[in-house]
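Morning!

As promised:
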Amino acid sequence: MSTRLKRLVFWSLFLLFVIDAAVIYTLGTENDSGKGFLSEEAKEGKLLFQKYNCISCHQIYGLGGYMGPDLTNVMSTSGKGELYVKSFIQNGTQRMPDFQLNEKEINALTEYLRYVDKTGISPVINFEIEYDGTITQKSNQ
Amino acid sequence: MKKEIGVTFIFLSIIALLAGLLFGSLSAFQFVFPGLFDALPFFKNRPLHVSLVVSWIFLSVLGGIYYYLPKYCGLPLFSKKMATLHFWLFFITGLLILTSYFLGKFGGREYWEFPPVLAIPILISWLLLLINFFKTVLKKVGQWPVYLWMWATGICFFLFTFTEAYLWVLPYFRNNLIRDLTVQWKAYGALVGSWNMLVYGTAIFVMERIKGDESIAKSGLAFWMYFLGLTNLLFGWAHHIYIVPTAPWIRYISYGISMTELLILAKIIWNWKSALQHEKKDFYFLPYRFIIASDCWIFINIVLAILISIPAINVFTHGTHITVAHAMGSTIGINTMILLSSVLFIIDDVTKHQFSATEKNTIRTGFWITNFSLLIFWVSLVAAGAEKGVLIVENQLTFQAIMQKINPYLVAFACSGLGIFLGLLMVSVHPLLIIMRYFKTKKA
């Protein structure tokens, strides 16, 4: 394989990568069905989620740690919801420390989780498997 | 005489590995017995473990590059001072990151949980490496062997993906969860690909040296496989976000490309092993053994990697311990085995140390304990993940009920994690002591 061909293959792949990244940054990820729920409080909640390293134990869309449950739809799951979430944050459990958060922080975190809940579904429970190994997602309800 | 900067990197890498394993073992037991050792809770322990083992990978691979370029590639470093500055920046930033974790000061994201301001010195240290590397290797006349391409690619793409992982600081990315998660995992997927480039480049270098045949790294096959690996690095990351509601083509591209990268390396290693003479295997007995172990782990992990890249299977395995099994199988079984091979090669080369029978026995026993423990560790995680996946999708049990059901697997996982720690301690204790003696002789 000549050096010229190697360079050609490398730069072609790189060019495709740049185009791919540009489309992903824009059109590929423009649909955010929770947009209407992204209040200033929710934005603050997102930063608190990082500040207290919640992701080391919890997941959003199945991404994160496994010590605690996936929180993507905790706000809308039957038997859970806002009071349930606030109670856990305020008191902690054997697995989850009490981070001594104030009311403002708890509200911000809850608003962030409300926003996350509106963006989609995780885990995916209702789906159909297609012939090519892909799946078609259906509502979990 | 001055110490070799590459060896200094290697020395720190072994310490990072052992410390990382210690925190990892503790985390695993905290997972099974919540409340254990409250002074250092799980949410602090986990980032300590992850950061230290990631440091092991980077320090050992970079130590190898700094050592191999002048010693074996006939390319004296452009600036030794720059390499030393790189080391100290890495070391001081590392200490600051560990301190922030101990104090519970976070603010970043998964895997880079430290306060974002600490990303700046990391970026500077990699820029120093980038300049030093290219100023060094661009002097090379004639065809570059594939490992130089791989190292160059790994360094460039680390810088790109690390920067991409911090796009969340911009509101445009941060304030759209779908975009934010997609870009985050696009960056992480490619970031792992970039360190794989660095590690696999090192593997090919060590194999070439053991075999004593430079054509292995210049063959057309090696380059086509490198380009396939690069394609995976660039486009094969979306299996992490199959369930995130992005545009469907993002998932299809990734599914189509899938993970062929490990298959590629396995092919190279397989060709190399079958052609290797017995005398050379004996001469480089320890490095050879670790490379062969990585070969076995490649085959085990590739099956899992291909399976979890199929969306119909991924829907069951995503967010379960199977993902952890894949990550651990790759970082311990493949990367760590390759890097230990490189570390032993360098130690042998730089110190001319003749391993005694006792030292060889300790390393050999540690090698078997590590691999046997890793097998139990891996199987436990796969079993826990498979059961969790089915219990979520089919039975729709609560988190607490699932955790109770998979607890026996997690106990086996924690105990075998301790076995990995013990095994790797046995493997690395003599190399660590040999380097310390080498440093003393350099001082004298």
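Chain B is about 80% helix and 0% strand.

Hope this helps with the figure draft.
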